[in-house]
Records
---
Amino acid sequence: MAHNTGGFFGINEALLSSALAAVTFSLLSVQPLTVVGITGLISLFNYTIYHILLLHDISLYPNFMVWVGIWSAIFHWITAIFNICDYMRTVTDFSSDTFGLYVGTIYIIKGVEELAINFDNNTILNGFASALVAVLYTLTVYLLERMGSTCLFNASTRKVLSDYAYPIATFFWTGFSHFPGNLSYVDFIRLPTTKAFYPTVSRSWVVSFWHLPVKWIFVAAPFGFLMTLLFYYDHNVSSLTAQARRFPLKKPAGFHWDFFLLGWTCLVAGILNVPLPNGLVPQAPVHTDSLTNYVDVAKESRTEDGEVLVWKDTWAKSVVEQRLSHFIMALAIIGTMTGPLLVVLGLMPRAIFSGVFFVVGWGSIENNGIVEKVLFLCREARFQSPSDPLLTVKKSAIIHFLFWQLLGWACTVAISQTIAAIGFPVLIVALIPFRWVVMPMLFTRRQLEVLDRLTATNDIVLVSLGGRPEMPEETRERKRLEKDEERVQSNGRSPRGCPVGAKSE
């Protein structure tokens, strides 16, 4: 973001925004498990606005961004007050999987763009060394995170290695970039830092946004609305995934209050001219997962030859539902804004951040429903699981369903690479009514029940959203049955084939 905004948004702005959100949501939100911070999508949004204003008057950018935050806050409050968050119960995997694949793709693209900076000015040696560090960092985090699913060491060791994969990899590969010897010939580009608790560029935290010409204040309104549209989907889906059915939560959600609270963070972040924070995917569900108490049980089975097979069965016993972990994150972020820790951050090569983009991006892709369906279609028939529900529908229906999802993904990725990128939230949100209005006309109820399902499946989540909605394919079938019954009644016969008033045996 710093590279694409002329250095306006730097490390201090990112840290302050993340700290502001973490303190607010850890103390005041209904669901503090949802991790809130800066996403790659808000970075995309901010530098797209920067490029748009380059075509007009870039000196307006600081004041203009404040008004985008103010308008966004107003739209957030309207959304929360009128219970519009209730419509998140209509979100299905059709749109959430498409969004997840889009987010993962954007993160990987940004990781590649970040690596490309290391090749500037024909610094080929720096570029390839940075690419090596980024790839090795990615593999390190990936393997450590999956340590919890193995049978290596004991349960406590596996949990520590899995939960602290990022810090372990960051410490090691940052140190690696400072090794003497041949690596000393590489001039790694490191994280640029500035004075503690000061903006990156020479300005005050609060700019004179009230001096922005009136016409530009109203021009900022649609940008604020698009920001709200992005947060409406992104933040609430983050909250949904952090409270998925696989986590045995007991405390209820509070989508309307939390979105109202997000409006206040938008207002304060906007006035301070820092990136607006919102819910993080996939960090939010990862946070809940790290607080989940898993129990490993050794199970045995005996083959026909009498050989005993032992495998590990893991199930979630409980979740430590508290505010402390999120609040500690906030304190840690504030600590990194101090002078000594900023110096430490300045030791990190930028290649580390490319690795973070790769890991987070792949995390959104690897277990994505779209990818799983594609792999199902590619798998040899004799190795398919007999219990897989996808076997009950035709492959042509699966391909047809994937076509619409991949079309939505391709459109959002394509528009994000242009100056029209601020319009991508419209495409994402438009997938919700498309699923409810168009898809039931293209697929049968049985096909949709197998290929798609509600994203919000946890009972305590649905309660806060007004309960489980009736799916459109269910509504269509119910109305069809009612019409059939009315038609039979009007013909003077009961649904069972007997004349009206006659007794059936």
---
Amino acid sequence: MAVRYAKDQPSGFTNRIERVTIVGAGGMQGRYITAELLKTGKNTITALTRPDSTTKIPDGLHHVTKVDFDDEASLVKALQGQQFLVITMSVLAPPETESKLIQAAAKAGVPYVMPNCYGLDVYNDGLVEDIASSKVVRDRCNEIEVAGSSSWIALVCGLWYEYSLISGHEWYGFDFKEKKITFYDDGNTKINTTTWEQCGRAVAALCALKELPDDENDKSPSVSAWKNKPVHVSSFLISQKDMFESWKRVTGETDADWTIDFEGSAERRKRGLDIFEKTGDRRAWGLSSFCRVFYPNGDGDYESKYGLDNGKLGLPKENLDERTKVAKRMIDAGFAYFGDRSF
């Protein structure tokens, strides 16, 4: 596809993203994206929500539009005139819901759609084959392209740091209540992991860029540079042992305070799949999926493969121990993925 330049656009063209709609503005990731979008002051932000939704919508939004997601005509009407649609939804949401949003965005002529990704490398065939949620992301990206009117931009951020650290041993191997940790393989495999805030800053920074390069000599970042591509961001490239060392620095604990085990990542994955097949337990899904990212083949390290877009987006460098302190505060506040998420 030929590169488009602002200089060639018709009279009245404004080279910026002015109108952004977000689905899931009050969700775990969505509230951070919403907060960072509002901080920039660069966009008019609309939250799209179901009429019966009980999720608290962040204050300060310019518009809140309640619409029946099963009514395509209403969805199309709600999305008309919007330039960027951000979809953030629970992995438990019916998969057809996102598809309905994508189709409505195409019919409404929304130029850019950020699908419900916020995770792993969408170009990694092994991860897409082994982790069902990754396959869904790739399918949604393909659907956006086939629909023809919109372009996708997927936020590849790896696994969420604090959430994955404290949600249970099935995630990053830590059981803080029992003071037990299971290192996958030798515990030294490094993966990219990102905070919710950094994800929010990335989306806000992207939407604050000019839409198109001014002309063929303009090499500054623009939204269109990521058309039908992932944007790669990260807070840290670290191993389980790096996380453990950070926890010990923050708390003053030592190895002697913990029970430390080791399990092969492939063996752990098989064990999780077996449990999930027998019980359908979502924790078993976590057990099989999260250790897959730690395979020593480097699948969880997209930074070394593609580089990061942090610099292009002006994202800050975060401090690992400070974010581990946030994780500890979440534990102390009683945060639980399968319970109270109010932190």
---
Amino acid sequence: MTKLVLSTSNVMNGGPSIIRRPISEKSNTELTNSLRANFLASKQAFGLTINGDANGIEVTNGSSPSSKSSRDLVSWTSREGDTMFVPSIDFSTSGLSEEKSQYNITVKLFFLPSAKSSERCAHTQEAISLVLGELHVPSIDLLIVSFNGISFDADGDEDEDVEDNSPQEAEQLDEMVKTWETLEYFHAKGIVRQIGLAEFGSERLKRFLPRTKVRPSVDQINVRDCCVVPKSLILYAKQENIELLTHNDCTDILPKGTVRELLGTGENGVHLLSDAANGLDGLKGEVEPQWVVKYTAVVRDRGVIESKGYFAMAEISE
């Protein structure tokens, strides 16, 4: 098995090739376009360009397309053990322009459908480590976790497919509590100053909070109907001193098909995956996205975003 760590770099430095979504649109457009733009920029830096808007790879060192080797295809990536970085990451060129105290750093971690709940603790550590390395900081101010399969319904407070006391709900709650203990560990170490949740309505919060040592500071919800937050949630959050925030993120922010499209040999791909039909070497196997982490560094006294980006991790079984 190979781990693929995908990265966007700082999307605030991106040119017109990065399409940012309107703030009112719930979409993963920014993530997918930023990943693709960073992939192509990295390939070009190693002498590889894209013909016809990603319809094929041309090796610019004088060789013909038919002589492409696997070395050409992965020269813009790097490996450490069983992990491949797409593209290569050089933390020496990243970082913030001022001291950490001048920024408010928010991180949101999305656990995706393909990921096993037993792997969430390791995934959390991996994601945090990448963000700290990218920004050159020892800590972050707020970490929000988004669990797969949890959605919020403003009309009914919560959208749950099973009854509150069902075995499925109890097992899901146990898994979330176990993951939360990892966040509490990072909080105790001072690596994360505040921790928060996404998509929790009042009923789920009532079941979750008694099992925590560190209460969530934030509950981030997606309100579909004109930002109407249920009164029951407003009152309960106020009682528990939880700040309610809204967002427009996709819960499944990086579907399996999107990853294959980005890495494959199609019109929007970067030809990292193998294509036996066309004689192209590359990675073989099923691609399973595991998590996505989004980070934002805002200058405190100006309210300006200096750095924003994404990391994602997928597994490929060869």
